[in-house]
Amino acid sequence: MIGLILFAVLMTSACVYHFREPDGFAAMLPDWVPLRLEIIYATAILELVIAILILIPATRGWTGLFTALYLVLIFPANLYAAAKGIPAPGSESASYTALWLRAAAQPLLIWWVLWCTRYPSRDTSLKGPPKRNLA
After folding, report:
1. How would you classify residue 88: left for phi > 0, otherwise alpha for psi between -120 and 50, otherwise beta?
2. Domain region containing 35
3. Can you tell me where the transmembrane regions are (predicted)?
4. Is residue 100 assigned to a domain?
5. Which of 15, 22, 67, 93 is the 20 to 30 Å CA partner of 43?
6. pLDDT single digits (tens) 15-71
């Protein structure tokens, strides 16, 4: 449960950070991407929604799967920022090591959300109906 709460706090913090440093996050997207600031604001709202839904047992499993997909979809932005040396939002300079570590941490975040939102074994709502014992 503590991992779940910490992940929700992380997503809430990410939401706040996106609203505080929207230009820095927009810089992590290539120039050819349209509506970069709007995308950043939308992702901020999405991260807050994720933080809320992940704490509700009835929505936790699907939210975890959706969050893992979301983290996969934003992974290219982290790779782009690392490859181009774009500083973290709110920073003036970039540490290439830190930028690549951030990108390398993305799979860990995906594992974390999948782990802390997994259904207990007795819950079959995602797995289908219970199997019958024909013995």
Report:
1. beta
2. 1-117
3. 39-58, 65-83, 95-115
4. yes
5. 93
6. 999 999 999 899 889 999 999 999 999 999 999 999 999 999 999 989 999 999 999
